């Protein structure tokens, strides 16, 4: 893994799904944080279970790494349902979707990650499937085209997206729940880190978990990743316990600063300040200057910078805040401040 990616929750998380499965909570009882969402889900699950019915379709939105996939698995476990996972871009043709839907049993959960990237033609097939649990299949396209109605079992779609704004109205309307995941606070991240350290049989002090929590960008996936890197560092340095100094040293060598910003975050802000006089500047221009994907900046980099007040988004473009200037050691004219 490139050093730059240590604090990046990649947008799908797929590359490390398996790595983190043992750290994942499997039930509501094990789940830390997102209290409001969990309370809502508990009621929905209990009500559906008592009626012997499948759960309503459910949409999660929010930045990557906050637990959308994890929650889909937790719901499946709590509903004692089987879960099938796919993603918007993987469903290239209607036949891909139909193949999955016709194999679902009553109560099964179909998790669709990055649902905002579902091709429009596939999306059209999903509407009647979600609403009436049937699909119209076109057979023999051409002059003798016929359609047949396929009955589906009553299943539940759990959709996840980092970009709620890109979901079309008709699709959004077919979800019974639309739940937004927020960044986690330090206390919840500390509890997650302590729990994960226990699972990994790693000793950590309160200060050690606190300093990792502070640099985790409000994101459990990053907290767990930083914990693992710090555990490696502690082992090689022959430190028995992860204390504050050990965790700070480990994160320094990984390029993560005391606010949790990594090189890409700092480069992003530096480009706005130095090349574009602090903004406003369009995200496409920043992406071109950095040779980065525009979507990566929007999905992964910006949400945390916005939430922590390093960045403002206006109709005319992105603006670096005074907080960003101070954090990176620039004066308001974009000059680097000389050390005293
Ligand atoms: N690991 C990752 N996210 C978690 C969460 N929200 N609760 C408990 N453990 C976690």
Which key phrases capture this entry?
Arc Repressor Mutant, subunit A; 14 helices; alpha/beta; binds adenine; 3 domains; Rossmann fold; 340 residues; five-stranded parallel sheet; Helicase, Ruva Protein, domain 3
Characterize this entry briefly.
The protein has 14 helices and nine strands.
Describe the structure.
There is one protein chain. The chain has helices at residues 17-20, 35-51, 68-78, 94-101, 120-132, 169-173, 186-199, 206-214, 220-236, 244-253, 263-275, 283-290, 294-307, 322-328, and strands spanning 58-61, 83-87, 109-113, 134-139, 146-151, 156-161, 177-180, 311-314, 317-320. It has 340 residues and is of the alpha/beta class. Strand 2 (83-87), helix 4 (94-101) and strand 3 form a beta-alpha-beta unit. The two termini are 37 Å apart. Residues 23-25, 30-33, 67, 70, 192, 195, 220, 224 line the site of adenine (ADE).
């Amino acid at each position: 893994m490139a050093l730059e990616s240590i604090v990046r929750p990649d947008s799908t998380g797929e590359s490390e799904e398996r790595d983190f499965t043992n750290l994942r909570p499997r039930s509501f009882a094990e789940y830390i944080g997102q209290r409001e969402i969990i309370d809502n889900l508990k009621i929905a699950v209990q009500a559906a279970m008592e009626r012997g019915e499948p759960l309503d379709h459910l949409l999660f939105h929010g930045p990557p790494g906050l637990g959308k996939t994890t929650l889909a698995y937790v719901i499946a476990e709590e509903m004692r349902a089987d879960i099938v996972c796919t993603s918007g871009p993987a469903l290239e043709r209607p036949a891909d979707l139909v193949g999955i839907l016709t194999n679902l049993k009553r109560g099964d959960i179909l998790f669709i990650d990055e649902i905002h990237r579902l091709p429009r033609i596939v999306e059209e097939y999903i509407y009647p499937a979600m609403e009436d649990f049937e699909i119209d299949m076109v057979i023999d396209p051409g002059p003798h085209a016929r359609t047949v109605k396929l009955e589906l079992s009553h299943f539940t779609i759990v959709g996840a997206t980092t970009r709620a704004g890109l979901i079309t109205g008709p699709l959004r309307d077919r979800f019974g729940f639309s739940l937004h995941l927020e960044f986690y606070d330090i206390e919840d991240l500390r509890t997650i880190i302590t729990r994960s350290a226990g699972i990994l049989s790693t000793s950590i002090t309160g200060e050690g978990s606190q300093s990792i929590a502070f640099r985790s960008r409000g994101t459990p996936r990053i907290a767990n990743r930083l914990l693992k890197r710090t555990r490696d560092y502690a082992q090689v340095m022959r430190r028995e316990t992860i204390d504050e100094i050990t965790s700070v040293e480990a994160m320094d060598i990984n390029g993560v600063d005391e606010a949790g910003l990594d090189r890409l975050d700092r480069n992003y802000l530096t480009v706005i300040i130095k090349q574009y006089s602090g903004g406003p500047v369009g995200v496409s221009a920043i992406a071109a200057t950095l040779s980065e994907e525009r979507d990566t900046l929007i999905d992964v980099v910006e949400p945390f910078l916005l939430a922590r007040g390093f960045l403002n988004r206006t109709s005319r473009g992105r603006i670096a805040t005074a907080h960003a200037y101070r954090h990176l050691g620039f004066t308001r004219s974009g000059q680097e401040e000389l050390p005293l």
